[in-house]
Every structure is written in structure tokens, then in C-alpha cells.
TrEMBL record:
Source domain of life: Bacteria
FAD-binding PCMH-type domain residues: 5-180
Family: Belongs to the oxygen-dependent FAD-linked oxidoreductase family.
Protein name: FAD/FMN-containing dehydrogenase
GO terms of molecular function: FAD binding; oxidoreductase activity
Amino acid sequence: MSSVYRSFGMTVPATGRAIAPADAIAMMKQGKAGNGALLAYGNGRSYGDTCQNTAGGVIDMRTMNRILAFDPGSGVMEAEAGVLLSDVIAHVAPYGFFPPVVPGTQFVTLGGAIANDVHGKNHHRRGTFGCHVLSFSLLRSDGRIHECSANENPHLFAATIGGMGLTGIVLSARFTLMKVPSPDVTENAARFRDLAEFFDLAEAADTANEYAVAWIDQLARGRASGRGLLMTGNHAGTGSRAATSAGPRLAVPFQPPVNVLNRPFLKLFNAAYRWKKGRASGPQDATCQSFFFPLDGVRNWNRLYGPKGLFQHQIVVPEEAARRAVPALLAAARAAGQGSFLTVLKRFGGQRSPGLLSFPRPGYTLTLDFPNRGARTRALLDRLDAITVEAGGAVNPYKDARMSADVFEASFPQWRELEALRDPAFLSDFWRRTALKLPVERHDRARAAE
């Protein structure tokens, strides 16, 4: 096991103490897990401190990585929590299946996908990953394994999906896969001149396509402000039924001493990206790797942001507020002189997650990546938080490294329900700096032991 467990954003302290799953399970079954001593750690792709427990330790779940069963007739898989989505994809693709929801990287664990209730480019059709989880086995520090589903231990089921690993250890889970003709995608890219045109196109794009996402040229100013590309896709009617899980083709072998993704680079990159994607006429074939996981082709790409790391900031605002709030968020970043390497805008649908604290909700979500420039960047992020909350939106806690307790409460007023069901042995740095700084009424934890 690694001696240091970092977050992908590299802006928060790493956890240095780790425990093997077998040892953690034995400790919990014997009732020897202390308060706040544990937190499950997947593959370290969280950007902030939801995967960190510096005051305690983390359980490295990656050795619990077996696929236990798969039924090609029903598309139901059972797997241990440490299995990677890349291995799931490789296993089911020959049978004509694909995960119904995938995030921007395939190198996340099943347990991480549940704990963060991940979403993808097709929320408008499939909702979050949690919408496709049938059941799971949850070990808590009371020493018991709780079988959880919508009908059995439903409160723990809801609290664990999107619950940031705070309810115990997910040992294994059953979930459904989606039948597809091919894991590859037929993609279309259409230029839009500004955000108003994007909003006019977005709903129709969602209706007509399985996948839809927009890239924004965040640095563009004046009449070009808000320009970008709307990329839509559907699984190809024919093509390979193999989806390899081979490692990245390129790598950033060492940590550059400075941020490589500076403003001049970003302006050149944005111009080239818009030209390359926008010049294509008609549908283009894309592998599932290039369409869903383009950054997975470069190992340790986060090192390009320099030794101080990066902040990823993702928000969602209601549909009726989006035409005002999204331009304000982009304008605030430009006014602060901060450039975002990847700026992504997409529409969330109305499908409700079974998760108690799930981030997606109807509206539009904007994601920005900023190199960490200290107080200057944090001030910008505070401003983006304020614009979001004022618009009735929410900031994504699963990617956060610095939001205030007040912003978290405004985004997730139901957080106390999760605190009532939190396993006392499990705690994260995120929960310590947000939820535990807010007033908490006394709760009866009895229902957590269902």
C-alpha cells in the first residue's frame, strides 16, 4: 500500500496512515474502531478532502477488487467496492453492455462511484450512478453487515449513496448495466456563438441524444464571450464490442516547478480545440475512451498545474436562474484574471437520485478548473460560491477543498439527516471543516442500526 494518500487536486493535506481492508474489517467486527478513526479510500480521484482523514486513517479499498458475478441476461453485476470502472467496462463490453452512468474518468472505484453518486454526460436520461444501484452490503462499526436496498434498511441505502463514505464500508454492491450496440460513440460537435445560443439549443440536444455536454472558451471576451462547442453523442450502431482498460498512452513523469497551464497556453489551447472540434462536418466516430475519458490518456495530468495543485469548482443552478448566473460566474473568473483549462457546461434532468445528499438536481451545471494561486484563487472561489447560492444553486462537495460551512449548508440543508446516520467511527476532513462546525440538533441514531 502507498505510504501517502493524496487527493487528485493536491491542495489539501494527504493522509499518511492507512489500514488494509482485512484489518479494518476485523477491527470493526470486534468493536475496536475509535471515533473518527476510519474512512474508506478508493483510487484517489477526488479533488478535495472528502477522501482524506488526516486526524485518523484511511482504508485502502483497492485490494477488494473482484467482480463476483455478472448476468448477461439481466445486465446485473455484483462486485467488490474496490473494483475500477475500467475493469467493469472491459468485462461487460463483449456482452454488449456499458455502465449507464460514467464520470469523466474510468479510474474510479465502484465504492467511490456510490459514495460520490457520480454523474456523466447523460444525466438528462439516466440520472446518477446511484439510480442504478440495486443493493449493497455495508459494514458498520457496530460489527454488523447491513444489507441495504430501497426496501431493506432504506435510510442507510439513501445515506450511503452520495454519503461520501461516512456510513461505513461498502463491501460489495449489485448494480445494473445498460445494453448498447457498441461501447463506442457517434459524436457531433456544433459551434455556438454565445451562451444565449447554447441555452436555446440545450434542451433539444438532450431530447435527441443520449449524451450532451458543452465546452466553453472561458477566456473569450466581448462579442465572443460565452462561445463554445456543444458535443452530443449516441452509442454507435455497430463497431467494436471490446473496450480495453489499457493504461494511459502518455504521462507527466515529474512535477513541474510551476503551473504549465498558464494564460498564454490556455488561449492557444482554446483556439486550437475550438478549431479542431468545430471544423468537423457531420457525425464522427469516437472510441469510448476518447469520448468519455479523454484525460485518462495522460497519466498524472494533474501535475501540469504545478506543485500547488488545482481547484475544481462545480456548481448547479436552477434552470430559471441559469441565463443570469452562468454568465456572471464566467465574468467573475475573467475579472479575477483566472483561466480555466477545461470549462464544461451541461444540463441536468429531472430524474431524482435515491441518494440523500446527491449533488445533481434540475438545472445547469458549470465546472471550472483553476491552478492554485493561494489567496487570490480562494477569493475567486468564494465569489463563485456567493453567486451560486444567491441563484438558489449548490456547490459540489465531492470535488471541494475549501467551501465554508455556511455554503455547504445552503447547498445541502438536509445534511443533518446524513449526520444522524453517519457511523461514528467514520469521518473525513471535509465533514470536520463543514458539517461539524454547524449546529447539530440531538439525533436518535437508532434507525442507523436497522
